[in-house]
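Recall from the previous lesson that a structure prediction takes nothing but the amino acid sequence as input. Here we apply that procedure to Inositol 1,4,5-trisphosphate receptor-interacting protein from Tinamus guttatus. The sequence below is the only information supplied.
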Amino acid sequence: MPVGIFRVCLVVITAIINHPLLFPKENGTIPENTEEIIQKMKEREEILRLEKLRLEQEIAGQEARQKALEKAAKVVEESKEEKVPWDMWTAISLVIFLLIEVWRQDFQEGNWQDAGGEEDDMAVLGKAFKGVVLPNKATLASFYEKRILGTTGDMARMREMVEGFADDLLEALRSVCNRDADMEVEDCMGVGSMYENWRVRKPFVCDLIVPFAPPEPYCFRSQTWCSGDSFPPDEQGYGTIKVCRAGEDAAGCICDKTKLGEDMLCLLHSQANTTRPSSEMEDLLCFKNTQYLDADQVMKWFQIAVTKAWNRISHKYEFDLSFSLLDSPGALKIKFKSGKSVAFNLTPVVQYENSDVYFISHFPRSGLAGDLPSSTHWFLTFAVYERRFIQLVSKMLPANACHVSCLQILSFLHGKQCSLTGPSGLTNYHLKTVLLHLLQARPCQDWAPEKLEARLQDMLKFLEKCLHEKKLHHFFVGNGKIPAELGFPIIFQRAEPLNLFRPFVLHRDVYRKTVDTFHEMLRNTSALINEYTVHIP
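The prediction returns the following tokens.
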């Protein structure tokens, strides 16, 4: 706008200066070509007039554009003034809604806490557990006494009978084996729910493990997934066993890796012994053309040896012995003439160094777990330490503590629900792992017998949280708080935690089935307990 005014003023001043009237006639002479000058002045005047018109049009256009911009700016300001209150009310409404929702959830969770306020939640309470109402203490006590406690005497008698027969069978097995060529079998040990006194569902099955060692001059050199070498995620929890000569390093003698001169001789091995025949290693139950112990070969040898041992002592007993399950090579069944039967598992294992951790050849797995990576990979079992930990903690708990009762009730409920809706990826070992974690986290006085209902709720909440996160850590692996009295190997305490629910991440259909079964069990808890409980007046 100022530029336009300046240009107009400049044109007017130029016109005034160049106008002929400014020059007095008496002060100048009229040129001879006056007409030509007048004509040029007219042309000049016409040009100035056209320039003035153009400048006026340009100034008018600028003024129009300026007005349009001012109008647009005014509209924007009005829209901002209208939008700010709208955004403010939207934000206020959203904050109020969130506060109401948080208050509602806190209020609902508060209704499920214990009335005295002395019990703290061990896990985040999920949606499924909010609608569950467990039976009262009297009903739970009656259910436990009538339905579960009565089976304890049966388990004790069965354990005594199976252990006596297994000792006799293994003694006969040693007599039929070649001491110079066959594996050396040690005494068996009882592990699992039957020996931890919490098994509730029939048929009762005793789990016995039988350590064995190679004949002289050989020995086992084991390697686990946490020993330093990288193992794939699907091989965590497993290890390999290499058969070596006594005094030989697991990696082998240097004479197998270095070319010795013609005039040099290995002091440990003769020239004829530098290469081991493959048939010799197969006789030691190794995988073909390797030094690694083969679990399938071990089970075949063990089944044949058990069959020979039974043939030797069968005349002493008035019952028959047979292998009961094809997919579980160590499963045996005693059949009496009366028609009754007793089942037990006799499984060969290899000791890990000088500890009570064992490599087990065939571990009972559910459909959730995948197959072994190969037959040279052995699963590690910590069953002996689990039994010792429960025994150690039980000595510090109050008299008639409810920890075993909680595990028995939960195992019974899960078993009944699976019989109704089919099997799921949740096993009794998962339930026992939950109990072990809570035994370590809870003070001893919290396991008094009158707190059975509260501790059962804790187990259900903890299990629901683990299912929601798809994460249940192995109790011993990666746990630095294991009591020193157990003498647990430090290598496993320093290892990364082992997630027992990792297969749920890989098998979404099994996970969905497991969660549905668990939620259905929660809804049916009261009905299942009342169904098996004597009426209390």
